[in-house]
Amino acid sequence: MRRLIAGTGWKMNIGATQAARYAAQLAPLVAALGDAIEMFVLPPFTSLPAAKQAFSSFAVGIGAQNMHWEASGAWTGEISAPMLVEAGCRYVELAHSERLEHFGETYDLVRRKLNAAVASGLTPILCLGETAEDKRRAVADDILNEQMSLALRDQPPERIPTVILAYEPRWAIGAAAAAAPDYAAERHRGLRKAVSDRFGAEAAAEVRIIYGGSVTPGNGEALMAHADIDGLFVGRAAWSAEGFADIAAIVARAAIQRKKQ
Ligand code: 13P
């Protein structure tokens, strides 16, 4: 049984002072969930020390939104995986569409970052997603397979369950509406099949694939009604502690539901 996930990336929001306040507000709201689900928060780099301290008393892991592929060196303005580990990160997000779109990142670069992340013991949250044009041409599954295969090319099958895959259709991020739940679930199934073809049935059965892109408390339940969607990865709707708590509650209800089945 795959452990479900509720996560949020804060993007370039929520500085250190606000991060501490967010954590203090969130703690009582998610206390009853215990460790029923996995929760993560990805603050901006400068908020990591405050977040590490503020989230240490309850079950929310912290992670970074990006990293460099080398451990150290003359790379002005960059942060390495060992530095993230030292800062208390358990996760690192890779290949977010905003990194691809605005900073020219490619999946070959992402592969190098992912290799460095796993070598340091970080859990990569690997974003995969088709553009609106790919969707129109009905090639989304091919694109997802290609991105996944390239980013995970150097990984052995036994490593795959330790990576979190995030299906994030690029046209649904920061948009007015999420992907239709049926459409998203179809992509998750296609991606799991692609993982199975490449890394074997066991890896595919264990790997968590979460959905991100305009998730709200209003559409989260319908997304989580699909068995291949293993969690929600949220931007705007979880930039308040109350918003994230609402999303976490939806994921926790889905976890209870699935245990019964
Ligand atoms: P929104 O939820 O604001 O669309 O952002 C989603 C996202 O970028 C998750 O990584």
Give a description of the structure.
- The protein contains eleven helices and eight strands.
- With 261 residues, it is α/β, with parallel strands linked by helices.
- Strands 1-2-3-4-5-6-7-8 form an eight-stranded parallel beta barrel, surrounded by five helices.
- Helix 3 (81-86) links the parallel strand 3 and strand 4 (91-94).
- The longest helix has 20 residues, at 241-260.
- The N and C termini lie close together (11 Å).
- It binds 1,3-dihydroxyacetonephosphate.
- 1,3-dihydroxyacetonephosphate (13P) is lined by residues 9, 96, 168, 173-174, 212-215, 233-237.
Uncertain ranges: none
Radius of gyration: 17 Å
Largest sheet: 8 strands, parallel, barrel
Bound molecules: 1,3-dihydroxyacetonephosphate
- Tell me the count of domains: 1
How many β strands by DSSP? 8
Helix share of residues? 40-55%
Strand content: 5-15%
Overall pLDDT confidence: 97
How are the strands of the largest sheet arranged?
1-2-3-4-5-6-7-8
Query: Helical stretch count?
Result: 11
Written as H for each helix and E for each strand, in order along the chain, the element string is EHEHEHEHHEHHEHHEHEH
- Gross geometry: globular
If you consult CATH, what is the topology? TIM Barrel
Compute the separation of the termini in Å: 11 Å
CATH superfamily: Aldolase class I
Structural class, from helix and strand content?
alpha/beta
How does CATH name the architecture? Answer: Alpha-Beta Barrel
CATH class, anyone? Alpha Beta
